[in-house]
Amino acid sequence: MDTINTCPVCSNGNFKFLYKTTDRMFGIPGEFNLMKCTVCDFILLNPRPDGIEISKYYPEDQFYSYKSQNYFRSLLKEILYSNPFDRYSNRILSKKTSGKVLDVGCGSGALLDTYRDNGWETYGIEISKEACTNANQKGHNVSKYSIEQYETDKKFSLIILQSVFEHLHNPDLALDKIRHLLDDDGRVIITVPNMNSIHYKLFNQYYWGIDSPRHLYLYNVENIRRLAEKKGFNIEYTTTISSPSGVIISMYNWIFESFGKRFFLAKYKAGLLDLILVMLLYFPSKLIDLFKSGDYLKIVMSKSKDSA
Q1: pTM, entire model
Q2: What is the dihedral of CA 249, 253, 254, 260, to 10 degrees?
């Protein structure tokens, strides 16, 4: 286990204990401390599994993003995890019909499929061998590396980290590499669980976005702004993306654990009750995004002009 002595955001050395957490996705043994910086309120796992230990919490045969998804599942996910008030991604796809896009932690290439179909040259980085194979079979250029290890002479118009940044052991090094790979007029899109969301404030330690120990760092918009500006980026746009499934998972965590039981997401099969809850919660969850209080935080950034 690695111990973090100073806050990655503000360099403060004092942390406050929040919660004892466990693996709620697969039920793999282990207990972890969720801590909060006493100065900037940044939330992190401390201590945390090192780069070798963490691998057992991403089982190759079970982790969701490693598997190929059929058309129906991809469409359903796109509907649930969309924000009707967010037009940024659509503008990128409609205004720019060519260019290189790099998806960091691309899984089996579901997101890259969309960009390829809109004329982009698609590249990806993925640590799973199986996922790399699945993505490359669909015509993408995917390499088995971490972002810190990735080397290329190419420059990218768009770099995406969708539900990835919170998994990275060293966000500072990752941002350095991303800046190096980005065109001077390129954009970076980062999507992470939102620790300023209504969902976290309502469910606290039962919030699905904690996902210990895979989520090493838990961000709000100010945390990422400070990290980004320190590394020569400018925040251009922020919004949130809510899904009824986030509320449902957090609710199940709360109910099960209140009765001394455990709810393991990877082992759960959705049923009729879940479908009813999704229908009831869909429109309220989208209204939350109008106030930028949803459970996913989406940030678009570019290179700062004075440091380009």
Answers
A1: 0.88
A2: 160
